[in-house]
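User: I'll paste a sequence; please echo it back and then give the predicted structure.

Assistant: Echoing your sequence first, then the prediction.
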Amino acid sequence: MPTEMEREALATYDRFVALRDEIDEGKRTWSELADFFTEDAVYCDPAWGRVEGRENIRAFFEKSMEGLTGYGWSTPEQWTMVDGPRLVSQWNQILGEKQDGTPWVVPGLSILYYTGNGLFCYSHDFLNMTHIGETMREMRWQPPAKFNMPPRQPDRDVSLPPAWRHLEQKRRSGPS
């Protein structure tokens, strides 16, 4: 039976996914997703690396998704599970459609830490970047003019924000 925190985390994540779906449809902006994070949150992206702070996450969402949204890219949710403050999500990165109408798909995972009050303090996305690169080559993808390249040497620190490191200690000490 899920705890109150787990139910709240799942409900918050459902709202997050609903907003992401609207963004994929071009109805909302990526920067709005930052409102689901604490002011001191950390977001770890497989290409862009570590981004610290809600306003930096907001800018990261806009910059990193420029030239992808509206060009056939989307992120449909597949499943979600929760354990205490931790939430794990499996989603697919859709890169567009093949000539036969089937999607170019690369599966991904996210681990988020929920702090309460509708906010996450941490998100770490996992995506096989070799699979992304191979798929992009196979589909002969060309970046649109507005596309932004990730940094050559991103910050790969995946630790929780200092104020929330106690959540990591809970993980190490066993089930919550």
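Residues 30 and 61 are 5 Å apart (CA to CA). The beta strands are 37-45, 49-52, 77-83, 86-97, 103-116, 119-127.
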